[in-house]
Amino acid sequence: MDSGNSAAFVVIGIIYLAMIIFFIVCYWKIWSKAGFNGAWSLLMLIPLVNLIAFAYLAFAKWPIHARLNPTDTFN
């Protein structure tokens, strides 16, 4: 492997790591705004578990709704 290929792999690795961090931060904000603990966003790093966590986020009753308007029947 020459130095050109090594540098390309390093750059691609840094870009990939930056994308992972970006998506975790975004999911952290989404989970937090829904009223859940933001640490749930770390489940998005685990294959298949991320699909279950995403479905839970989509269909679960969000704690923020209960706090903002306890009489709301939002589903």
Can you describe this structure in just a few lines?
The protein has 75 residues and is mainly alpha-helical. It has helices at 3-33, 49-59, 63-68.
Describe this structure in words.
With 75 residues, the chain is an all-alpha fold. The protein has one domain (3-68). It is 64% helix and 0% strand. The protein contains three helices and no strands. The longest helix is centred in the first third of the chain and has 31 residues, at 3-33. It is elongated.
Task: Please tag this protein with its features.
75 residues, mainly alpha, 3 helices
Lay out the secondary structure.
Layout (H helix, E strand, L loop, with lengths): L2 H31 L15 H11 L3 H6 L7
Low-confidence stretches: none
Beta percentage is: under 5%
Portion of residues within helices: 55-70%
Overall average residue pLDDT? 88
